[in-house]
Structures are given as C-alpha cells and as structure tokens.
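Practice problem: predict the structure.
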Amino acid sequence: MANAQPQHQRQKQQHLFGSISRSVNTHVHLNHVYLFLLFVIGFSLGVVITLFLKNFLFTMAIAPFASTNTTSVSLEAQRFIKYNTSDDELFRKATSMVQSKNTTVAKVAFMFLTKGPLPLAPLWEKFFAGHEGFYSIYVHSHPFYNETVPESSVFHGRRIPSQTVYWGTTTMIDAEKRLLANALLDISNQRFVLLSESCIPLFNFTTIYKYLINSNLSFLGSFDDPRSPGRGRYNPKMSPSINITDWRKGSQWFEVHRDLALHIVSDTKYYRIFKTHCLPPCYSDEHYIPTLVNILYPELNSNRSITWVDWSRGGPHPAKFGGNQITDEFLDQIRYRSKCLYNGNTVTSVCNLFARKFLPNALGPLLRICPLLLGFNP
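Answer:
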C-alpha cells in the first residue's frame, strides 16, 4: 500500500503532462496554420500592389507625353515601354497606335538588324546628314554586344532591347517584328526599311525618301518558286491554314508602309504555324512574311525588293564585295541595271535603293566615291 499512492500520483501526473503536451502540439499546429494563412494573404497583397504600381508607373510615364488627338508615344515613353514590357506587350502597344491626321512630317524608319558593330556607319552618317526630322533609326544587335557610340553620331541611343538571333529560325522573325514594333511607336514613321550592317544606300537621302514616301505599295519580294529551295520547303502540316498554293519565297530585306507593318506585327496565327512547322531546311525569314502578305494583303505589295543582292555565284549566301571592287561603274550598274514598275504603272530604271553585302574594307573606297556619285554632302 505504501507504493500505491506514488504510483497513483505518477499516473495522474502522466495524464496531466499528456494533456498539456496535446494542448501545446495543437497550439503549435494552429500557429503553423495561422502563419501559412498570413503568408498567403501577404503574398497575394504583394502581387496586387506590384501590379498596381506597375500599371500606375506605366500610366504616369505615358500620360505626360500623350497627345489629345492620337496615342502616339514620345521618345521618353517609348523607352519606358521598350525596357519594361515583353515582346507580346510591345506588339500589342505598337498595333494600338492611332494614326494622327495632324502628322506634319512623314518619316522613314531605317531598321538595322546586325550581329554587332556597324562598320559602314560613317557612310550612313553622310547619307543622313542634314535631314534630321525626316528619318528614325533603330538598331537590333546581339544583346551581349557592348559598344560606345559617340553622342554626335546618328546611331547614338538607337539600340532597342534585343534577344539572341539564330540564323534560319523564327528568332529572325522575332527580331524583325521587334524592330517594326519599336518603330511603330513613333506615329510619324510611315515607311519601314530593314537593313543589315553590310547594306549601303545607292542614292542620296532625298531621292530615297521621295521614292518611298510617294509610293502607294510596299517593296517585298514574294514569288512562287517551284524548286526544292521554294515549294520543296513547304510542310503539308501547315494545311489547311497555309496551302502549297499560298506558299511564297522572298528576300528578307523588305520595305513596307505603315499599314502593312501593323499587319505583320499583329499576326499570331501564321507565326505560330511557321514556328512549329518551318524548321531547317525551311527558313522562316525567306518565307513567313512573303507568304503572310500573299495570303492576306497581296494588293498592298509590289512583289519586288529594293535591296540588291548578288546570288549569281550560287550557295546559301550571296556574294560579298570588298574595297577593290568599288568603282563608279560597279555602283552605277547596280543602280540602273534593270527596269521595273513604280506605283504599278510607271516604268523606271531606279529599282534598287540599297545593296548588300559590302565588307568593312569597302568603307574607304565608298567614302571616296559616294559623296560625288550619290550627291552626299562632302
């Protein structure tokens, strides 16, 4: 009996401790639930506040620069849009621009799709000199390329946010759309020409400007090529949206007016088909825009390019031209070598406004010849 009392007390103590332990565990469990709920609520509020602030900052950035007659975006607001939006958001913003009836001076957007530097920039500097207000410049280069452009250069501050481009893939189309979208943000831009770092102008600025601004059609090569490099690249899986009879080929280096630029940037249907079914040896940059325009907007196109390229030597890439090939006779042959239609009914010998591919060592001879031959300012 002497040991019964302590044993009984121990049982009571164990029962008491068990109750306390269960209570503590329950309390700890509830604390975990409360903390989890507080985390979810806090995270949700953070997301809402972030989205609100982003929208607020975007609105504040645009509001001071917007015109009452148009949704044109100023350079300051353009920079905010470019560096703070995805491609899809940029494309939507670009295609929402409303044409202003008060646009006084129409500009030509010169869009340079490059790997890195612009070795022929001094030639283009002479081309643009004295024509401020009649052109815009946009440069898409490799995202990791670092360059220092003097503030006095027309190319200063003209690089747009870019992504890596891989030859023969839809990343080339992405870059072209990125250039078009950035240029569309300026409501004054009415014509859009795609160029590379190896391109040169074949006439002076005034001649090219008038030729483009006064044209009622775009200049985009789009033709039916029955050979393996043409129809042979068609994928039957593109049907029924794209049939073999719709399939077209053309030069990547296009020039389009604003209406067609808007159509190209806004397209998602045909882009998705090309991204899925046009894989090497199908090259989107040679087929996507020519096919898109042929299907939807053939009446807006002249079906010819204004950028001369020499494919006579065969192979996957055109001929290149160095300094020892630059002469007056050579350039004049390119400038006046053929006949074509302008605005659908006027026969002209001025069919090419630009040419490629010119090597960096061609710069010296070009600077010696072009001021006199093309009428640049010396």
